[in-house]
Design a protein that fits this description.
Layout (H helix, E strand, L loop, with lengths): L1 E7 L11 E8 L2 H11 L6 E4 L5 E2 L4 E8 L4 E4 L3 E5 L4 H10 L15 H7 L2 E2 L2 E2 L4 E8 L5 E5 L20 E9 L14 H8 L6 H15 L7 E5 L5 E2 L1 H10 L6 E2 L5 E2 L2 H7 L6 E2 L2 E3 L6 E4 L5 H19 L8 E2 L1
Length: 335
Amino acid sequence: MKDLKDYSLLKHNTFGIEARCSRFLEYSTLEEAQQVAQILQSGDTPYIIIGGGSNLLLTRDFCGTVVHSAVKGIEREGEPLLRCGSGEVWDDVVAYCVEHEMWGAENLSLIPGDVGASAVQNIGAYGAEAKDLVTTVEAVEIATGKVVVIDAADCHYAYRQSRFKGEWKDRFLITHVTYRLKVGDYEPHTEYGNISSELQRKGIVNPTAEQLRQTIIDIRRQKLPDPEEQGNAGSFFMNPVVDKEKYESLAEQYPGMPHYSLPDGKEKIPAGWMIDQCGWKGRSLGRAGVHDKQALVLVNRGGATGQEVVALCEAIKKDVLEKFGIAIFPEVNIY
């Protein structure tokens, strides 16, 4: 177990913002997670639990304890089940699935972050979400040190939401997540976004899982900046969901406005499109800016502080609300 004092979090946030914490605890086994829980039970200082830092914005030093999982391992349990350590890199799990002919995760290729975050955030992209795959979450309850196994149905998954982000926030130390994949004949899902057009451009009619995964990787790399080159946290805002009446009213004003119809009759409108319509794509506010290829992504132009990114976020929210009458909210966790 790592137990470090006055620790830099620069390498633990993809925005590339320098911030420090009073104490840093990292567990790599179930037993170490229980030790960490025992330390946190004292309640002497506040604490936060982080994953790979790809969904994190730090606005100041944290005068408390930061907890991180380094639990590794990918194990097949029965034909369609995969049990993964919470500290595994999510995209490594997707690569493993495709390599071993287990289907269902390929549309989630190249999403940054760790396995534990997939269960907390209900990560999603290109018509797929983690909730479609998660069966159980294993964790240590901090207050008691007890090991618990939580069924996916009890996590109350919704769009980028779960009980781990709400009533269960900072209550559990996740150690493993088990996913149910599909085996046998492959049925690709290519109807979301520009997957179909990209496959057509490549001359691929019936993609294999590997071809679909590579196509999604190519699409993401074309429009999303590499955090190693320009600090960012991927998609900064959640796509808002509105009722049909609101959508139809906007569609009259903005012909061709993109949208995705949901099973409950509501409509999801891409926040990136609205931000672009407000003229923010490629613009900067101080040292923080909006990516020039994808308006949903806020970037660190170099030396930006967390406060500068927040100021940019608030300016964008204000403009979108004034223009469209829709409130948008960050997907990123801000501390």
